[in-house]
């Protein structure tokens, strides 16, 4: 079974990229699967809706998947899964999970349980949808590290990066159920998630690809074509040379509210932040991200 796991920080294009990949034959985009149990089953997260518009527990796909994976007591299973996620696959756990994959330390039983549940959920989705490839936009590098240790999984890790000042500007504007976030907090998370994702690339370079949002937005068809070749995915890029695409219904678990859009859409660069981001926020974001800005090809002074 093939899984394309998206990692990086939020507001970096993972929703639209995942939905485009989900338009390919035999591919299903599940959104941020990490939150299925917290948001969907327990109902304690920021959003409980599937990308199809139904609540996750009433969606025809996810209700069946939960039944298959969680058994007779979904709430009990969900509480256990969420507890193991918090204990073993937060961003700070990435190094430990990679050390286990490399054989430098033993894998705890809780990590084995996380892997078992993740693989079981992927297989349930594949069997319910008939998909051969699953795109998971959870963006937790520690989860990707856990999956690297499964020899029966064809895992590809796609690391999405966007200029932290553009991300800070995006977070300054609330979007439906997504609250505002300060430039300091946004950039702190940006740095942590991207540095942790870089570690995946060093540990498994043959399974890893880094992609800048700016490159994708400027030439979506060409860049997406490169992603398809790297991941060995079927079909042609479902976007025209002019950046136009038509998105159908998806079954994504939480994520950017834009996942609920369907029909014609146009992918184009978003450069409004260059004029709209306050100078103080730009300085904060640049200062906090400075150690890794050049690594991703971003200038100190945009």
From TrEMBL:
<protein>
    <recommendedName>
        <fullName>Sulfotransferase</fullName>
    </recommendedName>
</protein>
<dbReference type="GO" id="GO:0006044">
    <property type="term" value="P:N-acetylglucosamine metabolic process"/>
</dbReference>
<dbReference type="InterPro" id="IPR027417">
    <property type="entry name" value="P-loop_NTPase"/>
</dbReference>
<dbReference type="GO" id="GO:0001517">
    <property type="term" value="F:N-acetylglucosamine 6-O-sulfotransferase activity"/>
</dbReference>
<dbReference type="InterPro" id="IPR051135">
    <property type="entry name" value="Gal/GlcNAc/GalNAc_ST"/>
</dbReference>
<dbReference type="Pfam" id="PF13469">
    <property type="entry name" value="Sulfotransfer_3"/>
</dbReference>
<dbReference type="GO" id="GO:0006790">
    <property type="term" value="P:sulfur compound metabolic process"/>
</dbReference>
